[in-house]
Specification:
alpha/beta; Rossmann fold; 2 domains; 7-stranded mixed beta sheet; 12 helices; binds S-adenosylmethionine
């Protein structure tokens, strides 16, 4: 993670740009006095034919020249220009105003001021703006886009989902950055849509030095993902064949488990808790176990004798209890709708971030015992994994 001013400056710039928060970014104080060179560079996001781009204006003594770049290329260009031709850069976004000043000796200093702008240079239309560009080659290999980088009708929903997911991860990392050499594990990685997008975003967009591992029990999916990773030169992306509960990680910093079937979500959360993962993100799939073992209290029978209501109630209780077990293990949790219901019924996401200091397991336990009793929950897989040998 950013341990120096330059890395921190460009990471902030990348986030502001990718998430539609950038107002402008300028480079100034040229390293050489030469009338043929620009005095400064001025970059702002623009929308051209429905595509968001970075317009970089080169301001010379006697003229201005503007060029448009795809976001990532534009930022790379500015970064190279700052290291070769300019001493200073100023970033203006809706969230921050950050300046970097470099000395002739190569030292760099950051100055942060309160943001002055309330409106981005372009209003990002979420339908059009995507953190993962559609022309990324692995998306074609995964069957989401055509060879020309157009999202296919069948891939549209998945494409939307991976972008939303990347946005959520990015938001969490903003407050809880990963350490250098962090291990990211995707439990139940399936066809790898989210694993590839996450890797691409962490490594290629944010510049993290991390290793990402997908764990998946179906060998043909593992094989396919390994090939796509090799073809794309994603050298720190690996896929391991096996079950989540028997996977033996050296360490886990960030754990994700999206739509892992039934209690596989509990197996993943247990692995994360055991490994003291800093961040966990799960989107549970079918929650069967609690429903199967629920003994509906008499006063709830008029409601829960109905199959669909019982199923929804069981799903709600399953996830609510998961959050309480996580809190008991020292995590701050959030539950929210991942993507709108019309796209998938599996739309609840739980995020958990490890809290420093002591945990209040007793307080959480009072709550989970109360919930179990009220709804007639006889067993919960995550509780068994965490506490059975202590009973
Ligand atoms: C519904 S898919 C989701 C794939 C991916 N996470 C996504 O959201 O696109 C669930 C995947 O988890 C795998 N899976 C289910 N239980 C598992 C377990 N206990 N260990 C490893 N993989 C598991 C399945 O084989 C399947 O590929």
């Amino acid at each position: 993670m950013p341990d120096d001013a330059r890395t921190q400056f460009w990471e902030t710039a990348r986030r502001a740009t990718l998430f539609g928060r950038l107002v402008k970014l300028t480079l100034s104080k040229p390293r050489r006095k030469d009338a043929e060179l620009p005095r400064n560079l001025y970059a702002r996001p623009v929308e051209l034919k429905g595509e968001y781009q970075l317009q970089i204006t080169h301001r010379y003594v006697d003229r201005e020249e503007a060029k448009n770049f795809a976001y990532t290329e534009g930022l790379k260009y500015l970064q190279d220009e700052l290291s070769e031709n300019f001493y200073n850069a100023d970033l203006f976004s809706l969230d921050e105003q950050l300046s970097i000043m470099q000395s002739r000796k190569g030292n760099a200093r950051l100055r942060e001021q309160a943001p002055q702008h309330r409106e981005a240079a372009v209003t990002h239309d979420r339908e059009k703006f995507r953190a993962i560009a559609a022309d990324r080659p692995y998306l074609h290999a995964l069957g989401i886009t055509t060879a020309a980088g157009e999202v296919t009708a069948a891939g549209r929903r998945k494409y939307k989902q991976i972008n939303k997911f990347v946005e959520i991860v990015d938001g969490l990392l903003r407050d809880h950055p990963l350490p250098a050499g962090a291990q990211v594990v995707d439990m139940g990685s399936g066809s790898g849509y989210l694993t590839f997008a996450l890797y691409d975003h962490l490594v290629n967009t944010l510049g993290y030095d991390v290793r990402v591992t997908g764990v998946e029990l179906r060998p043909q999916l593992v094989d396919k993902c390994r090939h796509i990773a090799a073809d794309n030169h994603f050298t720190q992306l690996h896929f391991e064949e096996g079950y989540i509960d028997t996977y033996q990680p050296d360490r886990i910093d960030l754990l994700i488990a999206l739509h892992a079937c039934d209690t596989a979500t509990d197996d993943a959360l247990y692995q994360g808790i055991q490994a003291e993962a800093e961040i966990m993100i799960v989107a549970p799939c079918c929650q069967k176990q609690v429903r199967r073992d629920m003994v509906v209290p008499n006063d709830l029978k008029p409601l829960l004798d109905n199959g669909i209501l019982l199923e929804r109630q069981a799903a709600m209780v399953t996830d609510g209890l998961r959050a309480l077990y996580l809190q008991g293990a020292g995590y701050a949790t959030k539950l929210f709708e991942f993507i709108p219901l019309e796209h998938t019924a599996k739309n609840v996401m739980i995020t958990a971030v490890k809290q420093p200091g002591t945990t209040n397991r007793a307080g959480a336990q009072v709550q989970w015992e109360g919930v179990k009793q009220r709804f007639g929950v006889a067993r919960h897989r995550l509780e068994e994994l965490l506490y059975d040998d202590q009973r």
